[in-house]
């Protein structure tokens, strides 16, 4: 397994302590009644940029040398990583370029531009956007900071896992949205270092789940990126994946896929019962519990990964739509 030393997670947490928030862990009475065990929501939606991605981006930018900071940073994203990198770069006076596909919602595109980053729209998938970002990195000398498959990004996300362990020492099940695997890998590395008995659940959507397809194939594979309520979980994992595929394969106890109706139900539950506005990718843990996919042995922590949903889409879903 291409892993990340546990010390890197500890150092990342110290490095980004003044750059990100320690987010709250909130008890969910409604989900606890349903599951028959205490259920806690880890509210990464309360980060300054509205998602967990700020942890990894801040850790990566903080480790650039002076020349790299002068030349700037570039990335490809389904939206939240781009927003986080734009914010982290602006905090340290670093120029940022963010490459997005045509499938990224306009609210996320606007938010990235408002943070001062240059936005480049390229192709119909995150893979297309990444090819453009790599071209820019070669031609301009900018540091390429990928959205998930990078040790500094993974270590930054691992700080979330360390917080979970401190806030809920008796946790038995951790539910993590799974896409390219940066969040899952970081959290799982922290959780499993504390206790291999804690079960990790990776949760994704049925439409274009690249990590699931890759694990089924036994190697990283390409998948078609399809429109989904969980748009932040879209995109490939990279055929040359170095870290997140192997870490996920090693540390994921169960992987669950959800249809669009279940994800919509999760969004509605978050708003009506928890008073939370969440995007589809952040609702998958709640949806998995509502759908009965998890059989918890004890306390559950659900990672609520982000809130950056288009408000018109949110209203449609609240009124019963599944898209």
Describe this protein's structure.
This protein has 323 residues and is of the alpha/beta class. The protein has two domains: 4-50 and 149-317, Rossmann fold, CATH 3.40.50.1100; 52-142, Rossmann fold (3-Layer(aba) Sandwich), CATH 3.40.50. 45% of the residues lie in helices and 14% in strands. The strands form two sheets. Strands 1-2-10-7-8-9 form a six-stranded mixed sheet, with helices on both faces. Helix 1 (6-15) crosses helix 8 (151-167). The model has no long low-confidence stretch (mean pLDDT 95).
Describe the SSE topology:
Layout: H1 6-15, E1 25-27, H2 29-35, E2 39-43, H3 53-62, H4 66-71, E3 73-77, H5 80-91, E4 96-100, H6 106-114, E5 118-121, H7 126-140, E6 143-144, H8 151-167, E7 173-177, H9 182-194, E8 199-205, H10 210-217, H11 244-251, E9 254-258, H12 260-274, H13 284-290, E10 300-304, H14 311-318
Parallel strand pairs: 2-10, 3-4, 3-6, 4-5, 7-8, 7-10, 8-9
Antiparallel strand pairs: 1-2
GO molecular function, one term: pyridoxal phosphate binding
InterPro entries: Ectoine_EutB (IPR014333), Ser/Thr_Dehydratase (IPR050147), Ser/Thr_deHydtase_PyrdxlP-BS (IPR000634), TrpB-like_PALP (IPR001926), TrpB-like_PALP_sf (IPR036052)
Keywords: Lyase, Pyridoxal phosphate
Mean pLDDT: 95
Uncertain parts: none
What amount of the residues lies in strands? Answer: 5-15%
CATH architecture of the largest domain: 3-Layer(aba) Sandwich
Can you describe this structure in just a few lines?
InterPro entries: Ectoine_EutB, Ser/Thr_Dehydratase, Ser/Thr_deHydtase_PyrdxlP-BS, TrpB-like_PALP, TrpB-like_PALP_sf. This protein is α/β, with parallel strands linked by helices and 323 residues long.
